[in-house]
Design goal:
By secondary structure, the protein is of the alpha/beta class. The protein has ten helices and eight strands. The protein has an eight-stranded parallel beta sheet with strand order 2-1-3-8-7-4-5-6, sandwiched between helices.
Length: 332
């Protein structure tokens, strides 16, 4: 638990799975304590937004957060890929659901932004579990209030920079166009990763480029390899505050069948995780993993991939928090 003027050397970690079986007890993310169990403050707050009223095809992502939590029961406290114990380095806690209006998208967007303002204002970084991709816009609004316009890495099969659907400005296909229009993104450091599949027309790509986005397709990842892609992304991001938004459909349907708008030819879960690990030096201020729709999943394949993705992102944030504290302590 942390506040602006105090820190604790020993964060409260997950339930000990050698004493309580993983399949028993409340399904918090990675079996971590609830936010209220650490005094309402955390360094990283894992929250979910059970909302999918912005989808254009298959619904069901409103159940994604709980599915990811269930799949995360198998996560362990030491991450060998990053040589870190994220839950010992910083206080990570499960903040539960941000409860939103399922019948009014505009109201839902306002509620998400207000909840994010509260969490970020208390000093937390956010690891948000969707929900559909509409939720990225209010989260970015809140992050930008704290950090100014942020760099964005958007992992997705789709661009999500379209203008409207059926006249609606706020949908899961429009959040990043709105974010560019609102000036909350650093347009010198925007990238899509994993895009593929048919578009409405070439104008989609032209409009996207005008907004400042670079594109790394899933085929680029396959041909160039994860190390080269991660290096390119690090150079584009630099030391800017970074927000990472991950639509689980950036993965091929073989690795993420449980999603609303699947596209053939996607990345493997291994490629996604390795790219994220290659971004460990970036200044990650918050992140989301969205569009997990468990009704279309098989054997929790999608939820498992999403839980490991959130784990890598949480590890990056926890490491950076611990490193910053160590530097502050050394400077005193």
């Amino acid at each position: 638990m942390t506040s602006s003027d105090e820190t604790y050397d020993t964060p409260r970690g997950p339930v000990d799975s050698s004493r309580v079986p993983r399949y028993a007890g409340p399904a918090t993310f990675a079996r971590l304590p609830r936010l209220d169990e650490v005094g309402g403050r955390a360094d990283v707050a894992v929250v979910s937004v059970p909302f999918d009223s912005g989808v254009s095809y298959r619904p069901g992502a409103r159940f994604g957060g709980n599915a990811i939590r269930e799949a995360s029961r198998l996560l362990r406290p030491y991450n060998p890929a990053q040589d870190a114990s994220p839950f010992a380095l910083a206080q990570v806690a499960d903040g539960g659901d941000i409860v939103v209006n399922p019948f009014n998208i505009n109201k839902a967007v306002e509620t998400i932004e207000a909840a994010a303002d509260e969490l970020l204002g208390a000093g937390a970084r956010m690891m948000t579990l969707g929900g559909d991709h509409t939720i990225a816009l209010p989260l970015l609004r809140s992050v930008a209030k704290k950090h100014g316009p942020v760099a964005l890495l958007h992992f997705d099969a789709h661009l999500d920079t379209w203008d409207t659907y059926f006249g609606a400005e706020y949908t899961h296909g429009t959040p990043f166009r709105r974010a560019v229009e609102e000036g909350i993104l650093d347009t010198s450091a925007l990238s899509h990763v994993g895009t593929r599949g048919p578009l409405y027309g070439k104008q989609d790509l032209d409009d996207d480029a005008k907004m400042g986005f670079g594109i790394v397709t899933s085929a680029d990842v396959m041909r160039r390899g994860v190390d080269e892609v991660a290096d390119q992304l690090r150079q584009r991001i630099g030391d800017r505050p970074l927000y990472i938004s991950i639509d689980i459909d950036c993965l091929d349907p073989a690795f993420a069948p449980g999603t609303g708008t699947p596209e053939a030819g996607g990345m493997t879960s291994r490629e996604l995780l390795e790219i994220l690990r290659g971004l460990a030096s970036c200044n990650l201020v918050s992140a989301d993993v969205v569009e997990v729709a468990p009704a279309y999943d098989h054997a929790e394949i999608t939820s498992v991939a999403a839980s490991h993705t959130a784990y890598e992102l949480t590890t990056i944030m926890s490491r950076q928090i611990a490193e910053a504290r160590a530097q502050e302590k050394a400077a005193k």
